[in-house]
Amino acid sequence: MIIGVPKEIKNNENRVALTPSGVKELKKHGHQVFVQMTAGDGSGFADEEYANVGAELLPTIEEVYSKAEMIVKVKEPIEAEYKLIKKDQLVFTYFHFASHEPLTRAMIDSKSVCLAYETVEKADRSLPLLVPMSEVAGRMSIQQGAKYLEKPLKGRGILLGGVPGVRPAKVMILGGGIVGTEAAKMAAGMGADVTILDLSLPRLRYLDDVMPANVKTLMSSEYNIREMITDHDLIIGAVLIPGAKAPKLITRDMLKDMRPGTVLVDVAVDQGGCFETTKPTTHQDPIYIIDDVVHYSVANMPGAVPYTSTLALTNATLPYAIQLANKGWEKACKESNELKLGLNIIKGDVVYKAVSDAFNLPYTPLEKYI
């Protein structure tokens, strides 16, 4: 198969979809790999490293898209890329369709095959291609939250871990999945007073067993959230419904009950955000303030640490990319239910129910293709 790796062009996105190591593995399987020049620079991988393992370097993004049968990316295509995607071309990347109708309609119009990292799902309901970036984003949410609690950055002026004789910051984490767990580990390690809210009692029991003493668990409800927001300094949105829009757990009217300088970090922004006031921001302009509450909602948080993120992501995606390249998407998805669940749009048909529901689009059962 001919595989193309374009340079990511989303604002401040420095990750790359294949490392030189990944290219070498695909070459061993007999595949041809085109990499756009400088695609790996942001993650610390030079063109020479790709050339040395057999990648063919192309100067423009247009050439990569025109030659490739399968495009492997990190982030969803942005508007400048829509017209480059060809009929029947397989695009393997994060899409997050349910939060972005123009992208969804553009991919329908392209008649391409869209296989989304975020909905590849194992039998135990885990999301193997979302996990590594969730781990990075969960840890980063505390790092960023601690920074924006500083007074010069419009926060309350609180040190996350406090000091002897002064209480630490209170951190509220909505969601006890991968993001929430990693956020809690980081916040607890820095000495904060942490509470994780979730709807699953088994998950809360597990977290209660494994977390340190400064992490508490609480059943998630609107009542409990409204009670807690009045005295918490940092609130992390870490809720995920695979492939669907995130629920709005912090509403606009709740902001007036928060103290000035409270910081909200919405890691669910890719799926529409779990705060009603969330709007996507960039690393270049990461925050905005509503009712004296600081909002941080960068849509590609792991892009700020591209070396770590690229290695973590490609460790997870490469085995699936090899399956798709070796067998073609139809045979690979027939033989792997995990990959089958990653299919969102096929040749103009929406085959993932949560995406069709998000925009009232016609739904086509996967059985038409697989």
TrEMBL record:
Q: Which CDD domains match?
A: L-AlaDH
* Keyword Cytoplasm carried by entry: no
Q: Please list the residue ranges annotated as the Alanine dehydrogenase/pyridine nucleotide transhydrogenase N-terminal domain.
A: 4-137
Short name of one Pfam family for this protein?
AlaDh_PNT_N
SMART domains, alphabetized? AlaDh_PNT_C, AlaDh_PNT_N
Domain of life of the source: Bacteria
Family, as annotated: Belongs to the AlaDH/PNT family.
According to UniProt, the name of this protein is Alanine dehydrogenase
- Give the source species: Reichenbachiella carrageenanivorans
Name of the gene encoding the protein in the UniProt record = ald
